[in-house]
Design goal:
The chain is of the alpha+beta class and 131 residues long. The chain has a single domain, classed as 3-Layer(aba) Sandwich (Glutaredoxin), CATH 3.40.30.10. It contains four helices and five strands; from the N terminus they run αβααβββαβ. It has helices at 6-23, 38-43, 45-58, 99-111, and strands at residues 30-35, 65-70, 82-85, 92-94, 120-122. The chain has a five-stranded mixed sheet with strand order 2-1-3-4-5, with helices on one face. β3 and β4 form a beta hairpin. α3 crosses α4 (99-111).
């Protein structure tokens, strides 16, 4: 292994600190859950997951958002699937979430607090959604 300079070590330390903040669940009230069962992975869930992480980082929300993986959500026909659970919004499952859609969901739903209508596959009951 090649020797690292002090500057390289400092950079590595900062990267690892960021990774630790991303993994910490304490105090985070927004959850993004990506279906990573075999059908989801085959449909592109890994790329979807990576894009979600990227957009959350770009919007400097790692201190507020926990990004989780789960197995099958039972919506194999619309994989990849992503569930968003956050205060002030109904828990919502989105389907057919490719990379551009993942970006749109984070920006519109998580940041902008607006549902992304054309990708909702498990819509909350009308009586609990405030218009």
């Amino acid at each position: 292994m090649a020797k690292m300079t002090l500057e390289q070590l400092r950079k590595l330390r900062e990267e690892k600190k960021g990774d630790m903040v991303r993994r910490d669940v304490e105090g985070k009230n927004i959850q993004i859950i990506v279906g990573m069962g075999t059908c989801g992975i085959a449909a592109g869930a890994k790329q979807t997951f990576d894009e979600i992480v990227k957009v959350v980082d770009e919007n400097k929300m790692t201190a507020d958002v926990i990004i989780r993986q789960t197995g099958c959500m039972g919506l194999c026909h619309v994989e990849p699937t992503v569930e968003i659970v956050m205060p002030g919004m109904p828990a919502t499952i989105y389907g057919k979430v490719d990379v551009p859609t993942a970006r749109e969901i984070v920006i519109k739903h998580v940041v902008g607090k607006t549902l992304v209508e054309n990708h909702i596959y498990d819509r909350p009951a009308v009586d609990i959604v405030k218009k």
